[in-house]
Design brief:
Strand content: 5-15%
Number of strands: 4
Largest sheet: 2 strands, parallel
Distance between the termini: 85 Å
Helix content: over 70%
Shape: rod-shaped
Structural class: mainly alpha
Order of helices and strands: HEHHEEE
Radius of gyration: 25 Å
C-alpha cells in the first residue's frame, strides 16, 4: 500500500507542478496585459489634459492636481519620456485657483 501511494506522488507531483507553473505564466501574461492597457489609458488622459490646457495657456489647480496624479501612476507603470515631457510643459503653465464665482 505504501508503495502505491509513493508511486502516485511520484507521478502526480510533476504534473501538479507543471500545472502550477502554467497557471503562474498565464496570470503573468494577463497581469502584464492589464498593466499595459492601464498605462495606455493613462497616456490618453495625459495627452487630453496636455492638449486642452497648453492650448488654453493655463490650468485650473484641480486639473493640475489630477494631471500630476495621473502622471505619477503612468510613470510608476513604466511610462516613457513622452509623459515626462508633457508634465514639464504643464508645470510651466499658469495655475489658476478655483474661486466661488468660477475660475479666475
Amino acid at each position: 500500500m505504501r508503495e502505491i501511494i509513493l508511486q502516485t506522488y511520484i507521478i502526480s507531483l510533476p504534473i501538479l507542478l507543471g500545472y502550477i507553473v502554467w497557471l503562474l505564466k498565464t496570470q503573468k501574461k494577463y497581469r502584464d496585459a492589464n498593466g499595459k492597457g492601464t498605462m495606455l489609458l493613462l497616456k490618453i488622459q495625459l495627452i487630453e489634459y496636455h492638449s486642452k490646457y497648453t492650448e488654453a495657456r493655463y490650468i485650473p489647480s484641480y486639473a493640475y492636481q489630477t494631471f500630476c496624479e495621473i502622471y505619477e501612476a503612468y510613470h510608476a507603470l513604466g511610462g516613457n519620456g513622452l509623459g515626462t515631457k508633457m508634465k514639464e510643459e504643464i508645470d510651466e503653465l499658469h495655475i489658476r485657483k478655483k474661486s466661488s464665482g468660477g475660475e479666475n
